[in-house]
Write a structure and sequence with these properties.
Elements lengths: L2 H15 L4 E3 L8 E3 H23 L8 H20 L7 H17 L7 H7 L14 H34 L7 H50 L5 H38 L3
Antiparallel strand pairs: 1-2
Helix pairs in contact: 1-7, 2-4, 3-4, 4-8, 6-7, 6-8, 7-8
Length: 275
């Protein structure tokens, strides 16, 4: 294999793994499409999370817990403790929401440490020529989750303060004044700050998660591509690099799931605070 042909095959390999399984929306005139692989993997992993926790909740005992039950209890206590730090009111909704966000994102992120060709090769056997198994490496998925958090933030803010009270807070903070004239003059600046906040929250949530997971996913592709096209005689070097980066990526995966969960809870909690 010449160096030039090896480089071309390597580029094709990376491009192949960066391509989503697209299903065009016919009613949109081909302008829009659905990433079927992202949809399938996110739904499957969400179901696995729900089934896993339902299974151990169903078999829970007040006696000596099994290892699985002990892990679930530790996870519940950890997430509930984080919610308690951010919100001192009722955690009936925020607790389950935080638990769902954390573990759903964690499960989706964990697809990144699987061998790059494992799931795509299995998918090709069913006729899917392209399949990306890491949902959080798709910016559409991360934006969908962050926009859902934004909707919940607005909903619970208005539910807590009333629509009028919530909108009043938007026009009277952060710049405040006792004089009515000054309040009117400062209102446009407060509205601008409110709009900026509502835009930056979902954008930062989505891009932070996407950027970190996409970068890790791409690095795994590069290592795998080098092993196939350039390190075929020295594949142990590639394996060592792959394993070493896997340990680093596991830490990133855990941190990113935690950050998304904690910020989501914080945004919703802040929207409900009357002061």
């Amino acid at each position: 294999m010449s160096a030039e042909s090896g480089g071309e095959n390597f580029t094709q390999y990376i491009q192949h793994h960066l391509t989503f399984w697209n299903a065009p929306l016919t009613h949109a005139g081909g302008v829009a499409s659905i990433h079927v692989d992202t949809l399938i993997m996110s739904c499957v992993l969400g179901f696995i999370f729900l089934f896993w926790f339902w299974w151990f909740a169903r078999k829970a005992t007040s006696g000596v817990p099994s290892k699985g039950q002990a892990f679930v209890e530790l996870a519940l206590e950890f997430v509930d403790g984080q919610v308690k730090d951010a919100w001192h009111g009722s955690r009936k909704f925020l607790g389950p929401l935080a638990l769902t966000i954390f573990f759903w994102i964690l499960f989706m992120n964990l697809m990144d440490v699987l061998p790059v060709d494992l799931i795509p090769t299995a998918a090709e056997a069913t006729g899917a020529t392209h399949f990306r198994p890491v949902p959080t490496a798709d910016v559409n998925m991360t934006f969908a989750m962050s926009l859902s958090v934004l909707v919940l933030t607005l909903f619970y803010g208005m539910k807590s303060k009333g629509v009028g009270g919530y909108l009043k807070g938007a026009v009277s903070a952060p710049f405040t004044a006792k004089n009515v004239v000054m309040k009117v003059l400062l209102a446009p600046f407060n509205i601008l700050m409110f709009v900026i906040e509502m835009v930056t929250q979902p954008v930062s949530l989505a891009l932070r998660l996407f950027g970190n997971i996409f970068a890790g996913d791409l690095l795994f592709m590069l290592i795998a591509g080098l092993m196939v096209h350039f390190l075929s005689l020295w594949w142990p070097i590639g394996v060592i690099g792959y394993v070493a980066w896997s340990f680093v990526e596991l830490l990133i995966i855990l941190i990113q799931a935690f950050i998304f969960m904690y910020l989501s809870v914080t945004y919703i909690a802040m929207a409900q605070q009357h002061h």
